[in-house]
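Good morning C.,

I know you're traveling, so I'll keep this short. The sequence:
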Amino acid sequence: MLDEKAKKTILRKIPHGLYICGVKDGDELNGFTASWVMQSSFKPPLVVNCVRQDSGSHAMIKKTGVFALSFLEDGQKDLAAQFFKPQRVVGDKLAGVDYTTGAETGCPIITDSLGYVECRVVGSVEEGDHTVFVGEVIGAGVHREGQQLLLETTGWQYGG
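The tokens, ready to paste straight into the viewer:
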């Protein structure tokens, strides 16, 4: 029998960086805070991005097949918090945030971030309440050096 408390405790020990995942569908742009992200291949360069299936951003990625990940710097907890709430609740999450649109995907990229990758979805697995999107990195840039913002350092928990 699964010990729910032990499962939750140990799964929350998996380290996670925090990112703003930028998405687009036509002229509509959005972003959300992502933490279930990892590199999964060198050749071709692939990343895995797990996205809640009941989110508007999930529908946008599924439809367009593209997303961008802006890597947040330690100390950007407030920026990460701004993108945690659903767009249907807060409206335009990009309002007041400096961003550009990616040359390869057109997705929003946070200017005040460590850097970014732009991805084209090459595969997905829809199991449970999140979809695992496998994205091939088709664009990348570095804005500055710094330490990645980690979920554990925020005091927040997303997992278990």
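Safe travels,
E.
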